[in-house]
Amino acid sequence: MPTSRDAEWDLVVVGAGPAGSTAAIAALRADPAARVLMLDAADFPRDKVCGDGVAPHAMDVLTYLGVDVAELTAGTSPIGELRLTSPRGMTATRRFARPASVVPRALLDARLVHAARAAGAVLRRHRVRTLIPVRDGVDIDGAIHARTVIGADGAESVVRRQCGARNAPAGTTAIALRGYTSAEPWPAGQQRLVMTTAHWPAYAWVFPVGDGTANVGYGELNRATSSTRAQLTERLHELLPGCPPVALRGHRLPLSPGRPDVGHGRVLLAGDAASLINPLTGEGIYYAVLSGFLAGSAAMTAEPADWYRRSLRHQLGRHLRHTDALARLTRTPWLVDLATTAARDHRRAFDDLVEIGLGAGTVRAPLAAAMLTTLARRSRRHVD
Ligand SMILES: Cc1cc2nc3c(=O)[nH]c(=O)nc-3n(C[C@H](O)[C@H](O)[C@H](O)COP(=O)(O)OP(=O)(O)OC[C@H]3O[C@@H](n4cnc5c(N)ncnc54)[C@H](O)[C@@H]3O)c2cc1C
């Protein structure tokens, strides 16, 4: 049993990605005197396989917590426009209601770690292997004692396994790879998503950073037999010809199953460790930041798991149920063709789709009405 003050912490956050750093900042905002330790297996700055697209919703949470968003995005340019290409080739190009950011994760995560340390958190390099619940908290690797632990250790979370959280249901993981290109056959201020019926659900993306480079990648739902790296690379080239990417790396995405298991007792899970990735778009940074914020705040209460579960349900519950239902419905791609056409023709349908894909949006009347109108128009054409 650890005894020295250096081994005793109010909160230990395992993993210092967006979920972990935000959790530490939120905990210290709730109680500036709290002793908060962040443990990460890596030194920062470190790369993280990602599309680097950051929704404005994530920036809202960080701004609320007092993080300087201009510092987080320094050296990059806001992206004002989105072009969607549906599985059967319908396109919708519109301005975002609010611009998105693209910040390479080597920069974003190091900047967030810096903000957490500036708020008073201590960072140590340490790969966590075991957690043992004890009467007044949790022992970590037999050397560190925490009153509360937040597992923010990503898609392969050790904390998740150790705390006995439910396994994600089959069909709720994706695999994606990404690289960087300096070829610019696309407008610099535009994000592109190119979907395809082959291996559906699947899509490629181009997210320009604003420094002459762009993050490009391809992802698809994991099946019983996973695609090989060579197959994924080939599909990326097919969908995005003319942009030879460098630094191609792949990673697994634990998609949200609608009702994620987010922890028990004194152990909370946030971000990818809680399987919080949007099953329609693969967006996970907003969920990581939001869940980190709520978990960090919960850690400073008397009943962390109850508080956290309730607040996460309040903020994301309906949205997660809607995205889960939509992910099932869109296993047949025609619905996505319909939604893309509706987004092309109706501004509010486009905005609704963006909110569902990047934020906490739900299926609302404007999107449903636009899709029904599109469907009716299409049926009339078939009859005529
Ligand atoms: C190819 C790809 C593209 C993506 N594109 C986007 C995108 O454009 N926009 C978006 O919003 N989301 C995207 N995502 C999802 C996004 O990357 C994740 O949702 C996000 O990184 C989750 O943040 P996190 O803090 O939960 O975990 P992570 O960012 O994975 O951080 C986890 C941290 O935990 C540390 N760690 C792991 N194990 C241990 C351990 N045992 N002990 C100590 N430390 C440990 C790691 O070193 C790491 O620093 C993409 C994902 C992939 C794979």
What labels would you give this structure?
alpha/beta, binds flavin-adenine dinucleotide, eight-stranded mixed beta sheet, globular, 384 residues, 11 helices, 16 strands
What is the 3D form?
A: globular
Topology as a string of helices (H) and strands (E) = EHEEHHEEHEEEEHEEEEHEEEHHHHH
Largest sheet: 8 strands, mixed
Instruction: Enumerate how many helices there are, as a single number.
Output: 11
| CA-based gyration radius | 21 Å
What structural class do you assign from the helix and strand content? alpha/beta
Ligand list: flavin-adenine dinucleotide
What features would you describe in this structure?
A hairpin with a 2-residue loop joins β15 (263-264) and β16. α1 (18-30) runs parallel beside α7 (285-299), α7 (285-299) packs antiparallel against α8 and α9 packs across α11. Helix content is 37%, strand content 25%. The model has no long low-confidence stretch (mean pLDDT 93). It contains eleven helices and 16 strands. Strands 1, 2, 6, 7, 8, 9, 15 and 16 form an eight-stranded mixed β-sheet that branches. The longest helix has 26 residues, at 304-329. It is an alpha/beta fold and 384 residues long. The radius of gyration is 21 Å and the shape is globular. Bound molecules: flavin-adenine dinucleotide. The site of flavin-adenine dinucleotide (FAD) has 39 residues, from α1, β2, β10, β13 and β14. Flavin-adenine dinucleotide is lined by residues 14-20, 39-42, 48-53, 127-128, 152-154, 158, 176, 178, 217, 219, 251, 253, 271-273, 277, 282-286, 288.
